[in-house]
Amino acid sequence: MTPFSKNLIEITLRSRGPQRVFQKQLMRLAQVTGRPFGEFVLLNVQSKESAGAALYLKSVREASQVEKICRKLAFRGWRFSQKKLKQSDWFDKWKEDYQIRPFGKKFIVVPQWRRQELKAGWRIPIYINPGGAFGSGEHETTRLTVRLLERAGAPFKNFFDVGTGTGILAVAAAKLGAGNIWVLDLDSASVDAAEANLRLNRGPKPKTWRRSLETLRTGRKFEFVAANLVSDVLIENRRKLAALTRPGGRLAVSGILKSNLPGFLKAFKSPHLKKLCVLKGRCWSAVLYQRLKN
User: What's the whole-model pTM score?
Assistant: First the structure.
């Protein structure tokens, strides 16, 4: 696993308002900055009348751009701070934030350094070491995706994880019986983390693509494709995602705000896809499709 070779910039956002209002404002910030909402790590705040989140960026320039947008949006009650994290600080922070917790209906996520704390139970453990990647399975979009994965029924031979992050969904797919795994991410640290976490869980060695979905060129088709992205990217790549899914296979898409769901379903509609189910969380939604044999 190759961690970040440079320091990270930690942006901390805090609000004196209710958590529900803060999350809606945070979604707005994600839309304006063009950053996936999943990159914002919600902080554990005890009071119901305050909330916080952290964002980790790789350059001062990125951090300055986000700070400028934050101040322009001028959300009432927001406080903004920024500091550099050394590589050792980054890993220490992840270790503080990562806890053992349920994941979907069948799994339990266990940070590698907390393995000894795991108590025997019926849930299937997924051991995770984030390395330099984002994605702990805590975000609602990831939780919705794993539930769609669990609903797939019969084991599938291969699985394609689009925007893999730490590879947590790829590990879940392997534990559900997928013998061949492909992962894609533009961030090399994420691909490295996915490979390492599959190895940590004694899963198959994945085939990897270090690129964006837009630049991917392949004639391969998969029994299950999971794309946990944002609505605009999903819609722009709807034909490609359908083409990547083999006839009779499943396509799970997540990262869709509940408020955007009706428009998304209309824009994503395809003669090649049949909608099987829609899952809704507090703020986000996910959809499971079947690739038709036409």
Answer: 0.76
